[in-house]
Write a structure and sequence with these properties.
The protein is of the alpha/beta class. The protein has helices at 11-23, 49-53, 107-119, 143-156, 171-174, 191-197, 214-226, 254-261, 270-274, 277-289, 316-336; strands at residues 2-5, 27-32, 37-42, 58-62, 82-85, 88-90, 96-100, 124-126, 160-164, 180-183, 204-207, 232-236, 266-268, 294-298. The protein binds phosphoenolpyruvate and manganese (II) ion.
Length: 338
């Protein structure tokens, strides 16, 4: 169960509530976020919800039977909108595109990409400075120095930064240069990292694990929320299946199902989702029709020369066409009301 507390709940009202929950054998978890104070009660006993709901100091009470609670739509019917500031919003009817290279490679690349994004009205640039790579001999990113250079140009041009954080120890150094922390597929169940990102007041894009179920994704998001950060977006980026004709199996089904199970925004990553440049556009558009609140994809000035993931990366001309089609598709989805 989720109990939302009144802001001015007194100590004695709180201890009455705790005593009541203990008397029905419910385990108590106190959660304090940017928006609210909650008590999460976990237990099995049947009880009369009104006997708690009418207690002093309680704003609202909800039964949530899912393993994840705070990210469930069962208690929060309205969709969450994640606000990046400067009128950049994702979810609850607001749609955004995030584009940029797989890896941040050089200052010149940063400048060219930002100019391309500004020209096309894209407000969020993606790119990795810490890259999870299958081989230790592959390019692993420019690190914090690259992020600082990127931030300087992004800020000067009104562009927001989304980039992957791989370790708890990186968070503090990255904090002032990042608008959205990305948790990559390989770290989707790194519970220490999720705990730490719950203590940060910055939006998080949480990717689905390579073989992660939707339930695991939602429980991973619950780690972040229950540590205090409500600003979470989920990302479907394809799962590993038996199929070898493409890199991953983009699970379009995940989008409507997640949108039913959670109030959090859902973003689609068609680049990693299919891993083949010429098909990125069609699966991106399919993702938008299926209900995605945002799209994140890879673009590079010369994809053939990209340090990572060039095979799934669009050039500027191809991405320009895609921005336009994504916006049209989103408008069409709204028009027909799906
Ligand atoms: C990426 O966004 O470049 C990336 C490494 O993504 P994922 O974690 O989904 O593989
Ligand atoms: Mn990539």
């Amino acid at each position: 169960m989720i109990i939302q507390l009144e802001k001015d709940i007194t100590d004695s009202q709180l201890s009455n509530l705790k005593n009541k929950l203990e008397s029905i054998d419910y385990k108590i978890n106190a959660v304090s976020t940017q928006n609210s104070e909650y008590i999460i009660g976990v237990g099995k006993k049947e009880f009369d919800i009104r006997s708690i709901g009418t207690m002093e100091g309680i704003r609202d009470i909800h039964r949530v039977s899912d393993a994840y609670k705070l990210v469930s739509r069962k208690w929060k019917v309205n969709e969450t909108q994640v606000n990046l500031g400067d009128n950049v919003k994702i979810g609850n009817g607001a749609f955004e595109i995030m584009a940029g290279p797989c890896s941040i490679e050089s200052e010149s690349q940063i400048e060219q990409t930002i100019a391309h994004l500004v020209e096309n009205g894209v407000k969020i640039m993606r790119g990795g400075v810490y890259k999870p790579r299958s081989s230790p001999y592959s390019f692993r990113g420019l690190g914090i120095d690259g992020l600082k250079v990127w931030h300087k140009h992004a800020k000067a041009n009104g562009i927001k930064i989304i980039t992957e954080v791989m370790m708890v120890e990186q968070i503090d150094d990255m904090l002032e240069y990042v608008d959205v922390f990305q948790v990559g597929a390989r770290n989707s169940q790194n519970f220490n990292l999720l705990d730490a990102l719950g203590k940060v007041d910055k939006p998080i894009l949480l990717k689905r694990g390579i073989s992660g179920t939707l339930d695991e994704l939602l429980q991973a998001a619950e780690y972040i929320f229950s540590n205090g950060n409500e600003k979470i977006m989920l990302c479907e980026r394809g799962i590993r299946s038996y199929e070898t004709a493409y890199r991953n199996t983009l699970d379009i089904n995940a989008i409507p199902i997640l949108k039913e199970k959670t109030h959090l925004p859902v973003v689609i990553d068609p680049s990693h989702g299919i891993g083949v440049r010429r098909f990125v556009e069609s699966v991106a558009l399919a993702g938008v029709m299926a209900g995605a609140d945002g799209v994140i994809f890879e673009v590079h000035e010369t994809p053939e020369k990209a340090f990572s993931d060039g095979q799934q990366t669009l050039n500027f001309r191809q991405s320009k066409k895609l921005y336009d089609r994504l916006r049209k598709t989103f408008a069409f989805r709204k028009e027909i009301g799906v």
